[in-house]
Structure formats: structure tokens, C-alpha cells
Design a protein that fits this description.
The protein is mainly beta. About 10% of the residues lie in helices and about 40% in strands. The strands form eight sheets. A six-stranded antiparallel β-sheet has the order 1-8-2-5-6-7. Strands 18, 20, 21, 22, 24 and 26 form a six-stranded antiparallel β-sheet that branches. Strands 27, 29, 32, 33 and 35 form a five-stranded antiparallel β-sheet that branches. Strand 3 and strand 4 form a beta hairpin. The radius of gyration is 31 Å and the shape is elongated.
Length: about 600
């Protein structure tokens, strides 16, 4: 557009050409390293030149809202509040009617309108090839319907006039990386108060990465903004099986987050996490906050430091990366025993005070993670149950997950209160760290902050320190005998376990491919000369359809032979299964046998 504006319009041949757009453009491109770059992003350029607020909307993203986007774009353009371009993707073959679009290119939009003919965007196509060398052709304007725009282009690049937001704040900071693989995160808080409390409005936060070398393409940034009331661990249980649409990393220089403040919230605090991942040891950044005249906003310049903190570093490996709670391996995820203690020297305030607790998990930028806090006696959790979930970071988020909780000590009815009670077992809970998929592996850092003293200890995995053996089997049409009430119980697969010496013993039964409502049981019997199944020695208990399977308690077994019977509650269930056998001595033998 700048190059085109140098020449006067053909309709007015007496108008003098303008030189300043060309000079401004060439100066900006010199600053950005020259013209040798793939594609273009108009919102970044306009922010650098005019200071307008850049916003990138991914048309192909899962969070894209077609109707709301149209309303915002159409209203903003009609009022002169925004300008926009449309960006194509990497696909080299992009066509619409008889027009070929360039890949990785931005096209200017010069009109947005809705009429009886539908929703139309006027797109300027500057890449028109003349049929003759000396022939001059002006750029053509394409009238493209909105629905076709959504199919042709990958992104919408908006630039918003800053005068829409009367209250603006700016904060400059620096990401300083110490370790080679460290992702740096900076936490800032923004306080706000409404002058008209019953109005629902947005506060915008813009993160800008400072560019000192335009040839560097391995700097990634992320911006996560949350109302502190939304960080209190309240979470829909379905969030435990989804990935958050926001907070992902990008190699763009800008990230904009719009946070809606409901009419029911007259004041509050925005917690802002600006993250960087790249090879630079020191990278500057700027946070800009924008609010209407209805808000009073200010940076929190006196953040309180928690008196008690602990940092734990670990690694998700093939042995402990269990994935989310829909996987039977969820139980293998890193788990920690969190035990809260009464505030020192505050016996007079018992039952009246609150403990401020924060858990922050940090991983690599391409790993979506979650923190779950579960009511327990400090033991390992096999299955995530909704009514036992005390707090959660919500949907899995890339690079970082966090939970902040003000814990009351005087509400006995609240399960979470029981966790931090000063008395014995009631002060125990289990912290579960998980990545979304079992194949998500790599280092992680867990930081726990609290206003009360606490202990945090890793919980050993099931069978830790014991010998483990995995045996697979199958229930078929002939041997799927069901439970004892089916009268075909003895038809189930039976495994003989030969133990050479006194041992600690535990066995778990899991489906290889879990499916809904398949209740399982594993029972151990003493072997007998006639192979009869007499009084059992131990059992996993009532039939259970837990995804993690079922397990017997750990107990001592003397040397000898035993029979393990895996079964489903209903007969005729054909499925593959596995037995995880744990013993404290080596040399046990497990084999499937057929009873006479």
C-alpha cells in the first residue's frame, strides 16, 4: 500500500506524487533486515509505525468464532476503529474463481460490508501481471464473500486504534535465561476497579518481544492472562481431558489477550504470565495494558513474597509419563504428598485464618500439562474421581500450569479444608502432575508457595523397589466366564504363579484397550492337587470399571504355587488384558494353565 501511494491516482493526473511513504517503508525494511523475508504481517508493521494494537485471529483454530468475529470486524471497520489484512497459508495452490493467491502473503482489505447480497470483503490484489510489458494495470479489487474468505485464508490480522482505550499502561522487562533448556516466565499483576460496576467490558494485554536481530527465528513467546478469581482451582471435570485453546507459544513478536470482566466483578486482579523460549540469554519485552475510561488500572508494584516455598525438578520419561485421566497409565504420573502444617506461633488463630497456596508447573513450550490436587491420606492415586478433585489448573496448557488457592481452616464441610487442617491425616493431599499424552516427555519444574509451612515429598510408584513382571492374556468366546455368579467362573483364564521364597506380593489387572463399563476383578487362590478354586487368599475387591484397572492389596506370600483368576463381571466380554505382578524376590514364574 505504501509503494502504491507514491503515485497519484489516475483520476487526478495533476496531483503530485508523495515521496514520504516510500522513504518510510524503506527505512522500516532497513530496520527489519531488508526485503528478504517470507510473507508479511501487517499488524506487526502498523504497530511499529503507528502504534496501533495488533491482533491475530487464526481462522483454522479450534477457538475461532465465525459470527462473533464478523460482528467485531464489521463494526470496527465501519467506525474506522480498525484496519485489517488477510493472510494465506503455506499451501502453494490457493485459488478462488479465476484468481490465484500467493502463499504466505497478506492481502489488504479495503471494504467490509453486509447487504442483501450477503457479507462481502473487498480485497486488494496488487499482484496483477500485465499482458504487455509496457501496459500499466492498476491493482484489482476482489469482492469475496465472507464464507469464501474463511476457506481461502488462514489468518486475519487486525490493527486497532489505541484511542478506543483511554487508560493505558506500559511495563518493560527482561527475560534472563540461566540454563540451556530453561523457559523463562515473568509474572506481573494488574489491579483494576470499575467506576460503573454493572458494565461488562474487556481489558486488553499486549506482549511485545523486543527484536534486536531480525534473522533470529527461534524465539517463542506466550502470554497467559487470568482473573485471580478464576485461578482458585475451580474447574469443570471435563477440562481434565482437553487442551486449552489459549496460551500457546508463537514465534511472532506480539501476543494479544482480551479478558472479559463480568458485570458482577467491580474490582479484581489480572495475573499475567509472559513466557519466552529461545536461544537468547537476555531478551527484552514490553507489556501494555489497555482499558476504557470505566476502569482504573495500575500495576501491582508491591507483590507479596510467600514465606514458604519449595522447588522440585523432575523428568517425564517413558516410565512415568502416563497422560491424562482417560489413559490407564494415568496412575504412573509423578505424584507428591503435600502435607500442610499450622502456622507457627498462631495457636490463637486456628480455625480463622486462610493459607494461600500456589502450585506452578513449568515444562517445554510444546508440552501441554495439568496440575491436579486430590483429597487423600497422602497416598498414590490410581484413578481421578470428580468428587475427590479438590483443585485443578483446568484444561491442559502449553509450557505451564498453575493453581492458586485460598484455603479456609474453619469449614469442616469443605473437602479442601480437610487437606490443610492442622491435625494428623487431615493435613494430607496428593499432587498429580500430568502431560496430555503419554508420549509427551521432558524435564519439568514444580514450585509450591504457601503462607503456611508444608512438606512436599514424592510418592513412590506402584511396585517401586520390587521386581515386576507383565503377563498378557485374552478373554475369548470360550473362556470369558464372567464373575462367580455366572456359574462359569472357572472357565476364565487361570495363571499359575510359582513363588520360590517368602515375598511381598501385589498384582494388578488392566484392560489393554479400556472401554466403557467393563468391571474387573483379580483374585488369588492357593493351588491344590485337584486344581479346585477353594477359599481365596486375596482379591481386588468388588468389581470395578476403573480405567487404571484393579489391584490386590500388598501382602506376604510364602513359597509355593498360587492361582490368579482375572475376570469381568459379565460373561462373554471378549478383550485383551494384562497382569502386572510385583514381588520382593526374584525368580517367580507365571504361566497360563488349563484346569482339568
Amino acid at each position: 500500500l505504501m509503494c502504491m501511494s507514491v503515485l497519484p491516482p489516475r483520476s487526478d493526473p495533476t496531483a503530485a506524487p508523495a515521496l514520504w511513504p516510500s522513504i518510510l517503508e524503506k527505512g522500516y525494511m532497513k530496520l527489519m533486515g531488508g526485503y528478504d523475508f517470507p510473507g508479511s504481517n501487517s499488524s506487526i508493521d502498523l504497530h511499529a509505525i503507528a502504534g496501533w494494537i495488533p491482533e491475530h485471529i487464526e481462522i483454522k483454530g479450534s477457538s475461532f468464532e465465525r459470527e462473533k468475529t464478523w460482528e467485531r470486524v464489521a463494526e470496527g471497520f465501519a467506525r474506522g476503529h480498525c484496519v485489517l489484512t488477510l493472510g494465506t497459508g503455506v499451501n502453494p495452490y490457493i485459488t478462488w474463481e479465476d484468481v490465484d493467491f500467493l502463499s504466505s502473503h497478506s492481502y489488504a482489505v479495503i471494504d467490509v460490508k453486509e447487504s442483501d447480497d450477503g457479507r462481502i470483503l473487498t480485497i486488494l490484489d496488487t499482484w496483477v501481471n500485465p499482458s504487455h510489458e509496457k501496459e500499466f494495470q492498476e491493482p484489482r479489487a476482489l469482492q469475496v464473500p465472507w464464507l469464501d474468505v474463511l476457506n481461502i485464508f488462514d489468518g486475519i490480522y487486525l490493527s486497532w486504534d489505541t484511542s478506543l482505550w483511554e487508560n493505558q499502561l506500559t511495563f518493560h522487562g527482561m527475560w534472563k535465561r540461566k540454563g540451556q533448556d530453561e523457559t523463562t516466565i515473568r509474572h506481573t499483576s494488574l489491579r483494576f476497579a470499575k467506576r460503573s460496576p454493572r458494565v461488562e467490558e474487556e481489558i486488553l494485554v499486549l506482549l511485545t518481544r523486543h527484536v534486536t536481530d531480525s534473522s533470529r527465528t527461534l524465539d517463542y513467546i506466550s502470554l497467559k492472562v487470568q482473573l485471580e478469581d478464576d485461578m482458585e482451582g475451580r474447574s469443570n471435570f471435563l477440562d481434565q481431558t482437553t487442551i486449552a485453546a489459549k496460551g500457546t507459544y508463537t514465534n511472532s513478536t506480539h501476543v494479544l489477550v482480551r479478558t472479559k470482566v463480568l458485570s458482577s466483578m467491580p474490582s479484581g486482579v489480572l495475573s499475567i504470565f509472559a513466557s519466552h523460549d529461545g536461544d537468547g540469554t537476555e531478551v527484552g519485552y514490553t507489556l501494555s495494558a489497555y482499558a476504557t475510561s470505566n476502569f482504573d488500572i495500575s500495576w501491582d508494584e508491591t507483590p507479596s513474597s510467600p514465606p514458604f516455598t519449595k522447588k522440585i525438578e523432575g523428568i517425564l520419561t517413558s516410565k512415568n509419563a502416563g497422560g491424562n485421566c482417560t489413559y490407564p497409565t494415568f496412575m504412573a504420573n509423578p505424584q507428591y504428598h503435600l502435607q500442610m502444617h499450622p502456622e507457627r506461633g498462631s495457636a490463637s488463630t486456628v480455625g480463622r485464618s486462610k493459607a494461600k497456596v500456589a502450585l506452578i508447573l513449568q515444562t517445554s513450550r510444546d508440552t501441554p500439562v495439568n496440575i491436579s490436587l486430590v483429597y487423600s491420606q497422602g497416598g498414590r492415586i490410581d484413578e481421578l474421581v470428580e468428587n475427590e478433585l479438590l483443585a485443578s489448573s483446568g484444561a491442559y496448557s502449553y509450557g505451564m500450569a498453575q493453581v492458586r488457592k485460598d484455603i479456609s481452616r474453619n469449614s469442616i464441610s469443605n473437602l479442601f479444608t480437610q487437606i490443610i487442617s492442622q491435625f494428623n491425616a487431615a493435613g494430607d493431599s496428593t499432587v498429580i502432575l500430568s502431560a496430555f499424552e503419554p508420549h509427551h516427555m521432558g524435564p519439568y519444574t514444580l514450585r509450591v508457595e504457601s503462607s503456611f509451612p508444608f512438606d512436599l515429598r514424592p510418592i513412590p510408584q506402584e511396585g517401586a523397589g520390587m521386581y515386576a513382571k507383565v503377563v498378557r492374556g485374552t478373554w475369548t468366546r470360550d473362556n470369558a466366564g464372567g464373575g462367580p455368579t455366572s456359574e462359569r467362573y472357572s472357565k476364565n483364564p487361570i495363571f499359575e504363579i510359582d513363588i520360590p521364597a517368602l515375598t511381598q506380593f501385589k498384582i494388578r489387572l488392566q484392560l489393554i484397550r479400556p472401554f466403557i463399563s467393563t468391571s474387573l476383578n483379580i483374585t488369588i487362590f492357593p493351588a491344590s492337587p485337584d486344581d479346585a478354586l477353594r477359599r481365596h487368599i486375596t482379591t481386588s475387591g468388588a468389581y470395578n470399571d476403573a480405567i487404571s484397572g484393579v489391584a490386590t492389596p500388598q501382602l506376604s506370600l510364602a513359597a509355593g504355587k498360587y492361582l490368579a483368576v482375572p475376570s469381568t463381571y459379565n460373561p462373554g466380554v471378549e478383550a485383551g488384558f494384562q497382569l502386572l505382578v510385583y514381588t520382593s524376590v526374584a525368580g517367580i514364574q507365571v504361566r497360563e494353565k488349563t484346569l482339568r
